[in-house]
């Protein structure tokens, strides 16, 4: 029998609803909150208010696009965490009320795990076979994950401070570029020289990452350069973006290569908002050819926050009959382990 699942994502600044029929996406509606742009980052209080305003229209549109009736739904999946508490509460409360009203089960999903499981949304593509390594890079998290099964994932390394996406966003803010900075830097970098400037690269043992030193090094570099030339940013913005992006990608890739050597695994996936980055995708392609890896890239629509990934994570939980109770509560911080 076909399973219809509604997925709801509200962990940060995107309100999203998706309807899946088994592992296929019928609709994936995303309302991104533009209000944060002028603040150069997400303002939690404004995010929860915007979710509250957007959630009903977004869900209604998801049903319209999917062209199914609410009565056909078998379950509701929602993001339990990690994320902003006020934002999560909007999605969790809506999901609970809807599940009660329709008398159907609730499915809790971990946002980070869902980013990885987005690779299993069926669009006719080859899915990664287990085990594989996944570089999960988003605005709030940077993790190297060994994926043994849909819900058996081991975090092999992670950032000790800032996330890679945060480094893009903060550097963009320093240059006076809009939020979110990642896509803007990606775009401007296309016209720049990645070797124009060099910034401090972290020296962290093992498979962990650190991006706060790089962020500070970028900040100090600009501060000094602006003393010499107050229009330094305008004159060199493309080179600044290309050089910063080159450094972030280099740092990310170095540990992926080590993790592959350590585990002997050559299937590598990327996930999360930063996996949309064109330089990261190019570099992966180069290394794939060199080291004979099999690489899995999520479609751009499933890289940044979206509810289709919540729907697919929920679908696999549904198959295991792993249902949540009405007492389910959101959590803000990432779990230490996915097992
Ligand atoms: O996964 P996501 O949508 O939200 C979180 O769970 O955090 O990731 C958002 C992050 C932001 O930091 C944004 O700047 C970054 O992903 N991002 C990119 C690109 N597109 C989004 N970073 C670099 N290049 C991109 N093309
Ligand atoms: Zn995310």
Architecture overview:
- Helix 4 packs parallel to helix 6 (about 210-230) and helix 4 packs antiparallel against helix 7 (about 230-265).
- Strand 4 (about 75-80), helix 2 and strand 5 (about 105-110) form a beta-alpha-beta unit.
- A five-stranded mixed beta sheet has the order 3-2-1-4-5, sandwiched between helices. The protein has a five-stranded mixed beta sheet with strand order 8-7-6-9-10, with helices on both faces.
- The chain has about 350 residues and is α/β, with parallel strands linked by helices.
- The model has no long low-confidence stretch (mean pLDDT about 95).
- The chain has nine helices and ten strands.
- It folds into two domains: about 5-115 and about 300-320, ATPase, nucleotide binding domain (Nucleotidyltransferase, domain 5); about 125-300, Nucleotidyltransferase, domain 5.
- Zinc ion binds near residues 111, 115, 138, 272 and 273.
- The site of 5'-O-[(R)-(carboxyoxy)(hydroxy)phosphoryl]adenosine has 19 residues, from helix 4 and helix 5.
